[in-house]
Design a protein that fits this description.
The protein is α/β, with parallel strands linked by helices. Helices cover 40% and strands 19% of the residues.
Amino acid sequence: MRKQSRTFLKRLVPVLALTLMIAGHAEAKLKKGDAFPTDAVPTLDGKGKLDISKYKGKVVVVDFWASWCEPCKIELPALNALQKKYKDKLVVLGVNLDEKKADANAFLKSHPVQLTLGYDGDKQVLAKKAEIETMPTSFIVDKSGVIQVRHQGFREGDAEKIEKEIKELMK
């Protein structure tokens, strides 16, 4: 029986270690209650920096998107409409993750928006800290810079849900 126990333990320990690593990795993702990173990334047009810390006092949506992302074609215009509607209290920042800026710019020609757009094409700044795995991924950040909601993907009805969440934080 002892030999069986040792064999069982030898097999169980790596499984437990892997499970704990996965659980620990999942916990590392930015989530509700975490401060959103204030690391600046270059703007997509290359003329400045996208810096979320400039927007304290406003509700901020930080949206990670890419040109190849089908749901982004619906989400970005919806977020653009929300920014127009709540322009005095809301800022929507888009962070593009395409490897080539040219792909992002081509996307924007057919899906124009009037948002502040950053670029993290090598995914080593904001995308890395936020552990972006799904496109699009967006964060709703309260007036003090704390994440209140993390959305992954974009489906029918999400625009209304996001608007409701934003309105609640603007109170």
